[in-house]
Amino acid sequence: MAEPAPRVVITSHNQIGESPVWSGSENALYWVDVEGRLIQRWLAHDQSIRRWEMEEPVGCIGLRKRGGLVGANRTGFFFLDTVAGQITPICDPEAHLPDNRFNDGKVDRKGRFWAGTRNFRDHSKATGALYRLDPDLSVHRMEEGLRCPNGMAWSPDDRLMYMCDTWARRIYVYEFDADKGVLHKRRLFVELSEDAGFPDGLTVDAEGFIWNAHYDGWRITRYGPDGRVDRVIPMPVKHVTSLIFGGREYRTVYVTSGYLRLGDEDLKSQPIAGHVLVIDVLMHGLPEPMFSG
Fold this sequence. Notes:
4-stranded antiparallel sheet, mainly beta, globular
C-alpha cells in the first residue's frame, strides 16, 4: 500500500514549529514556534491565523478547560488568555538552573500538564527533568537525568506513558498510574539508529500505535505497542518536529517542521521547511485532553 502524500496546509515559516494541539470545539490547530517566540492558532473554516508573541522561547502548550492555554517556556509554567492576550506566570521550578529551559509537554486525561526541561547550552548534559503541573497548580518533579525530554503521550487505556529523550535517540515507556499520576518501571521502547535522526514529537492513535516524528530524519514512523515498525511515511522536510491527529474525525495528521540549523543548500531544496503539513490517514486519533486548573 502506498503511503499517503504529505502536503502543506499552513504556510508558517517557523524556525522550530512544535507542540501541535487540535481543538475540536474550535476546529482549530494551535502550535508554537519555539525560537520564533510565537504561539499560533489556525482556524480550519476560514484558514485564518492568529499569533501571540512571547517574550522568550516557548516549549509547549495545552488546552485549558477554563479557556485559553497552559504552557511552559524558558522560565516555567504559564497561562495564556487567548482573548485578551495576557500571559500569567505560574511558577519556575528550575530558577536555580539558568542553562535549562522547558521543552515539550502535554496534558494527560486527568487534566494534569506534563512538561520536560533540557539544557539548551550543552546537549550532552543530562540536566533535564520531567514535571507534572496539577490542577491545584502544585508542581511535582517526576523524572530526572534526561538530556531532552520530548514527545509525551499515553496509551488509550492510560496504563502506559511514552516519552522520548531526543538527544539520546531513545523512546521510553513507563507503566502509568493514571489516578495518582505516577510513573513506574521505565524501559526502553525504541532506540533510533544514527541515520534515522532523533525521536521528537509523538502521539498515540486509537489503536494504541505510536507515531513519532524524526528530527533530522525525513520521516514519521508508526510503531506497534510491541515496538515493531508498522509503517514509515517519508517526509519532504528534514526537521520533522511533531505531529497530532485532528480534523472532524481525527483522521488527519498535522505535522510541524522547522528550518533552523539548515544550511543554504538544504533551504534551497526544502522551501517548505518550517510549514505545517497534513497527511490524510485511515487510522483514527484521539481528542486532546484539557488542563483542569
